[in-house]
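User: For my dataset I need records formatted as: sequence, then structure tokens, nothing else. Please produce one.
Assistant:
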Amino acid sequence: MSALASKHPGLISFLLLVVLVTGCGSGSAVTDEASPSAATSTAPPAPTAAETPPEELPPNELPPNASNQPPGSVPASPDIASLPDADCQNPETQTAMNQCAKASYDQADTKLNQVYNQLKPSLSAQQQDQLTQAELAWIDFRDRHCEFEAGQFEGGSVQPTIYYSCLAQVSAERTAELQSPAPTRLSYKAADQQLNQVYQSLKSGLSDSRKSGLTTAQLAWLDYRDTNCAYEASTQDCLARMTLSRTQQLEEQAAMQAL
């Protein structure tokens, strides 16, 4: 928790505030039989039909983004058009926080589209196809990941803020991944061991429904990891880097779960 606070002090302070205001609590911890870690699956599920790029997809266009609308479990945010941009510097109500979180995600999504469309024309036909497959897998992971994260606050007025803030953060991380992947000195084997420890620790404290959501998100991440690393030149470096990034995401979720 201390490591997360040093990296994201604003996020922790904000979450503490909204939890106190709304009275939302974390999921209760339960014990269950040990199950195989999704993080160590050697054979991620085959891509579904929804993950197959449509044949008519224009060469420079990002695959359709289905998450512009929140899933049914996430309360819809009010129309952000009625909120001046200046109010997002210091939102005073939960409605304003929800609106500003949605606006932040829209900005991050626009930036990602720009970077994606600038990158794709410079690639070979094979690389373009690999990038499209990776992007579709990332979209599925993004949605499953953020649904799980927001699910901790299901039914609460803060849930849209958590959901759209997650979308914004994951979109920004994907943009950075496309622009200049961060190097890592950690081996893939060491990174995978860390991920398994964090994953199992987080999962052990979740309710059955939340465990299911985490497993779904992890399987989607495995598919994204594999398709994205197939696109990159150095598979081992990519695996290590993405595994370390996923570990950090799960550590942040564990910190939120403890609130």
